[in-house]
Amino acid sequence: MTLTTPAQERYIRFSCPNPQCAQFNRPGAGNIAHRSWTGAHKHIERLRCTVCDREFSEREGTLMARSKLPEDTVIRLVKCQRWGVCDEGTADICNVEIKTVHRFQRVAAHRAETHHRQSVQHVEVAGVQLDEAHSKLRPKQVEWVHTALAMGSWFLLWVDFGPRTQGTAATLIAQVVARTRQLPLFLTDGWKAYPAALLQVVGRVYRRRRRGTVGRKPKPRLVAPRHLFYAQVVKVRDHAGHVVEVHRRVVFGGPRRFVKQLGLRQLGETIQTAFMERWYGTLRGLVAPLRRRTRCLSWSRARHRGKVWLLVSLYNFVMPHKSLRQGRMVRTPAMVIGLTDHVWSYREYIWLPVHADPSLTEQLDERIAHLLTPALPDQPPGRTHARPAVETNAKEAVPRPKAA
Prior knowledge:
By secondary structure, this protein is an alpha+beta fold. The protein is about 30% helix and about 20% strand.
């Protein structure tokens, strides 16, 4: 076979991987040209940036980079991870070693997280549901998965891992605020750390005037801004763990204003966290170590987190959602939120070049660090300075069993 120079239109999806180049991470700029063919069978193309003269492989930044596996095997590995096949089953199906599966998970997870950090910015989100899920690791370890899901589009804005503390909740909220254009509406369960974490991230300082001239001056405190809307869904359970009563309370924003905002943002009429509960059902079904009563528990915390990140990336861009369908056109959460205009195929996903941008990462980290810095360092944790309005759902409320 005689190799020829491909047409220039073939290089639209490529971009220069040099962070010092003026055309760094800008696909379709017309600065990529053919250089040569490499590999044992001369099947790998080397490209060149005409601006900085940097040469690089067509596989750089993709899941095919520095891999001797054929394309069909890599696609099969991605599909096994998408359907929640355990590591041993993946190695058997793809006819590879278990070390190859672990290396692929490590590379794919790092690439998925890098792509999410750089692409999910300045998105338009009306409402966000926050929740945390419990998972187990070997030997006898616990890992909490904290997730932020955009209402209406089912797009996963961020996934964090850590203990169930106010600091982790504040980090999750800061990631959401830093990646959205305007402050969204928040819905969570009844965990007490969320109100204090919200005030830590978006709260403003209120200094009350002293009445008269005698006595101590009132101390400043953090209060919720007027455009912050936050409500909780509190489930009351009995001694057996069954839900016997459901309370809905508006913490910030007021009940009437909150319900009005639900209608204006087209988020329904009910305060609920059903989207998040449904996502955790999908997550436990597609990630083997997260399933109930499973023997596929993870021994490595990094590998455990990597499996979740890879599924998050596939869920947003590759897996179409039935509830997002418009007529005969299937859509993914990334299409609804405006990050892409089509459903990505597995081949397109593995060949997508992802190059880490140090300056973009530094700017985003500085913004998140600024959001996590409280305006009042001496503010006691857990103090919200807001009287929640409690509303009981009469339809879902079940009378508690009387004591004998």
